[in-house]
Amino acid sequence: MLKRKRFGWPLPAALALAAVGFVSPLPGHAESGVTLTHVHGLAYSADGTRLYIPSHYGLAVYNEGHWTKAPGPQHDYMGFSATRDRFYSSGHPAPGTGLKNPFGLIRSDDGGKTWQHLGLEGESDFHVLATGYETNVIYVYNPHPNSRMREPGIYYTLDDGFAWRRAQAKGLGGDVIALAVHPSDPKTVAAATDQGIFLSRDAAATFEPLLRNRQGLAVYFDLDGKRLWAATFHGQPALTQIDLEARQKTPVTLPPLTRDAVAYIAQNPKHRDEYAIATFERNVYLTRDGGKTWTRIADRGRTL
Q1: Less crowded by CB within 10 Å, the N or C end of the chain?
Q2: Is 16 helix (H, G, I), strand (E, B) or coil?
């Protein structure tokens, strides 16, 4: 069952809604006044110039210190994930479009301006969706049966949803919160659950624990495939880099997060020392030195 929960304090309504909200411009302000009412994901453009935050009403874009709304339909994007050439998402259509709700799986090849339906429209809304940056493999956690997935669980497709395969996910403990796929190996996938962080090397058939006895929140593979970033909560928020070969775990210094935690992580494909994180309370930070120092670019949804 999909949940983002149990961070060690009563879950405030704002935190619970942070995963299912929207982006909208401040009334009476120019697009530079875009406010992040909620956050549904985080991804850089392939050229590294734009940071995208998908939402309930379209995409917010951060570019060279300025915030705008991206051109394209103002859909409610959920499970948003980017590869080198494409965006993939699920979610719900904007009001008045006449499109089937929910989307199932959709794809954009032009930065979100237009979207192609890949199946399961009117059936499934995948809140947990991850893609391989170079391979375009797609993994989802499906909470309910549909016409192509007979039971809940982790599924993956190598052909844009034409055929889905169910993963056995042996050894994976707890409720699935987030997934991440290795950029070049379609069989390597990480999972965050309410019991920790887990890794699979066999297309999610089996998992081994990397971090246990803590709330897993987010996972992200470096684009060179050598490290996994893992966001967790155990009394306080934490971000850890895990070397996939040596299994060395290195804590990353986080900016001050009060009653908050990391929900999404992304790396700039052109400037590999630059990362972005977004939190449940709609704070967004950038680092240009691999996580040593952070600059806030959104403060509880107010873009800076």
Answers
A1: N
A2: helix
